[in-house]
Amino acid sequence: QEIHIKEPIEKEVNPRLLPGELLLCEASTVYKYMQEDGSNRGTYGKLVCTNFKISFLDDDSASDDNEPQFKNKIVGENDITLQCVDQIYGVYDEKKKLLTGQLRKYPEKLIIYCKDLRVFNFCLRYTKEEEVKRIVSGIVHHSQTPKLLKRLFLFSYASAAPNYTDGRNQTVMFETLEDWRDELERTKGNVKYKAVTTNEGYRVSEKLPLYFVVPICISEESILKYEGRGIPIWCWSCHNGAALLKMSTFPKEQDDSTSQMQKAFLDGIYKTISKPPYELLKLDDLSSSLPSLQDIQTAYTRFKQLFLIDNSTDFWATDVKWFSLLESTNWLEIIRRVLKKAIEVAECLEIQHTNVLLIEESATDLCCVISSLVQVMMDSYSRTKSGFQSLIQKEWVIGGHGFLDRCNHLHKSEKEEAPVFLLLLNCVWQLVQQYPPAFEFTETYLTVLSDSLYVPIFSTFFFNSQHQRDTNKSGESLKTQSGPFRFLTVWDWAVQFDPKAQAFLNNPLYAEKPKPDKSQRKTARFKHQRQLSLPLTQAKPSTKRGFFREETDHLIKNILGKRIGKFINSSDEPPNSLREFYDSWHSKPVDYHGLLLPRIDGPEIKVWAQRYLRWIPEAQLHGGGTIATAAKILDLMEEVQSLQVKMDEEHSQAVSGDVHSVPMLRNSARLSSLFPFALLQRQSVKPALPTSTWKDLEDEDDLVKRDDEFVDLSGDML
Fold it and tell me: Is the pTM of this model over 0.70?
């Protein structure tokens, strides 16, 4: 086959190493294929592996001329952190084989599939045999084999890097008793709930945080009795006093006497916090009302395969059956079920004024998803950037979600792996794209947050619990100092992005909360902003027959029945209350600072296009997509700001100070919908009839029918 070669680099290019980063192995004269078409176009360079990343260096790596507008300072476009590697395949005589462990034979091509859905193709035919052995075995060993926690790059970086922190970070970390008391006061939950210090020194449980909040009537003895199990832990209080709580269950396999004691203990706990008709409590066992973690993992594994595209031919082959492939993954259906559960909880809190207790075995997986979603929907503070970050800290990082196990960062056990945090981000994205002015952050913010799961210089997503992080904090730093490690937090965005790039994380059309003293003037502006706002994907009019009306009576009974009404007889509540709540809310104008309910009718649950399609040139819209809209809006904003400056100068005869800077997206026609993650790429031409899918069509009549379904993917998937 003909290979279109970009000449090998003449000057020596060395990788940019972070503090604590060590070069482990390298190979020269490696040929990297361009992914955008089926040809063999590409470039020569050096492939290196460090204790942090795999990196391809070509002559472009040495120059800063072509730097993208949205550049990550830690991970470049040809860098793959070791934690971001999903699977590695070798190609032997045109056959792909999964590479794991020791290799007897070394491949002529290397394909690396990444967890952020990039695909890298490297040709090793022109590389020295010794270098091939070294680089392939090095990459497989360092990215695919089990490792010890302390061998993560997180520790190397923390011991060698300067202790830099951004003092302007407003995220509440929930590491102190004061943080919890402030949150109780903010939500007015301090009347019925208290922050406790019972777990100081982790004497109750290593799974619980140092400080947490429980109902005032719960005694310290109760908390200590079963290591915190069976204790309702406070998540958030609604404006009407109803609260969202979570609880970890007892192990299922117990002898009868132990089970009886635990049952009596639980009954006592419930009676202390459920006092009808003043204090009502509703239990919801998420393990029976939502998909299992295994189901979620299976669905996501199928779903991501749709986007790990090797070449243009594969892309167009899947285009014909795109909708059936997408449906068969079940991923969008899981997102719908989770959003529906959050609506159900919101209805209990908002309309029924009932406390909701979420129950799960560890209360650190689906409990985190539902409690976070409910707060995003019901508390406008959680829709600001600092509020959302504080929410993730509270419910996930300090709350004890097992990031290390669920992301399988140490490659210890695939059985524990499940994209629970990604599920939350996918659900929040549905809300962001349905109600853009309600959020201070953008979909780009959510995308880079999902990428940060795999960047091991931040401690945020690399521990299973606060206890695990605290016990591994102690250690001797390299030469410079001894004492505890000082880990970075992912919320310090200046570590990854310069101010110009950070501006892409902030929503310029965010409808800020009106101030009470200027309510009339602000209200008018607020309405005007709503008129300006455009959804990130084409809005579809809401049908009269909504999602709930299309569901069968059996399913509705099932949904309502899953909420275990132990202290409320389920017959006491109207069977249509959930439907009425949903339909009634959607029939009124949206208050961007009040309750938000996602639209969950069939077409409304969409694929998060920016995250999943950003590396696929065939899916781009040239000069279109969200970025074209953003470019026009930002141009208008710049014009308004400059006029404001001129007016200020004329009135005050003084030069105004800083104008809020936004990145200018001039010549939006030269950009594509892949921006800001990829610049404009060559147009991929859709084949007339070359794919295997077309060849399999049996006759002309069938072809005519299928041709109607053959619609451009860039329209369908966005």
Answer: yes
